Each structure stands twice: as structure tokens, then as C-alpha cells.
Amino acid sequence: MTRGVWKGPFVHPSLLKKVDKLKNQTGRKPIKTWSRNSTVIPEFVGHSFLIHNGKTFIPITISEEMVGHKLGEFSPTRKFVAHNSADKKAAQEVVQSSTKAAPGAATPAASSGVAPVESKPAAPAKKDKKWSKKVT
User: What would the pLDDT profile of 12-39 be if each residue is shown by its tens digit?
Assistant: First the structure.
């Protein structure tokens, strides 16, 4: 459920006080805040904020396009760590093996993008010592 229109956007009161203090100053310092749920209002435009993401403070300068959004939207809480290089190698090998197919030979596996499965050669038939029959 969204916030009622008659209430207006939520902005933490201490955040409003800090912005009002800095309006009259020329050398503006960034405003440090933990209030990620505060909405960006037009009075914030031009100010810089340090928004807490749970671990560090992310520096953000507010522009007009940000008005109406929440401060937390501009400070991601999760850090993407690249995938394992072994996964990249395996993907590269699959691509190379599919391109090594004979030119002009259209196999269903190659056309569907699935790597062909390499089968092992069949083991030679074993002889049973007692009966000297081939057991398969």
C-alpha cells in the first residue's frame, strides 16, 4: 500500500533541519544520513548526501531527476562480485567445441546451441574364464 497523498512525502525531520542549515552557507559539506526511506524533495536539489548502505556511506549529489525517489535507491546495499573465472573458461570451451564442427554439417545439437556430448569408446567384450563365452 502506498502512502496517502494527503500526508505528503516522508522526509526525516532531522534531515530537513540539516538541509535548512546548509541553504545559507556557501561551502557546503555533504549531509551524512542513515535515513534511506526519506523521499527526495525539490529542496534537496544541488545538495550532496552521504547515504549509508549498511556498511559505508555512498556520496550522492541530488539532481532534478531524483525528485520523488527514495534516498536508498541511490545507495546499493549489495556488491556484485564477478563470477568465477573457471566458469568463464568452461563457457569458452563449450563455444569453441561447437565451432569446431565440420563446416556444412548441420547437427541438431549445434543448431540448438547445445554442446555435443562426447561418448566414450565401448569397452572390449570380456571373456568368462569358466565358460569361455563372451559376456557383454
Answer: 999 999 999 988 887 889 999 999 999 9
The H or E element that residue 48 is part of is: strand 48-52
What domains appear along the chain, each with residue ranges and CATH number? 1-98 (3.30.860.10)
Q: Which three cell numbers stand for residue 2?
A: 502506498
CB 2 within 8 A of CB 39: no
**Residue 68 to residues 20, 33, 81: CA-CA distances in angstroms?**
19, 17, 30
**Residue 3 CB partners (closer than 8 Å, separation 6+):** 9, 10
Helix (H) or strand (E) holding 87: helix 85-99
Does the pTM surpass 0.85? The reply is no
Closest CA to 60 of 50, 46, 45: 50
